[in-house]
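FORM 7B: Structural annotation worksheet

SECTION A. Query
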Amino acid sequence: MAMFPKGFALGGLLQQAQQVQKQIEELQGELAGLKLEGQAGGGLVTATVNGQQELLQVHIDPELLTEDTEMVEDLIVAAVRQALSKSKEESQKRMSQLTGSALSGLTFPEE
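SECTION B. Predicted structure
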């Protein structure tokens, strides 16, 4: 008894899977190179992350440092959250574009 339907090309499926894997690796490299910013306090605090949700940089306007420490901390958290949210959205958008186009190329034999 055959495990796959007649005419099923396992080699072709494996080749397609390898192509998708290569595209995912390329996408991960692109995401690592992205820089997305989040801001808080009207731009007094800026956080920069990459497309892999890694925090790269935090900039605090020097005039803000004379303010209440707790307020500054809250602004930092808000800026980082905004940057991470943008990063997550961009990552998901690019991944769905990749998987959508990759999966549309898969062909399965009819029985």
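SECTION C. Observations
The two ends are 15 Å apart (CA to CA). Residues 44 and 64 are 7 Å apart (CA to CA).

SECTION D. Sign-off
Analyst initials: ____
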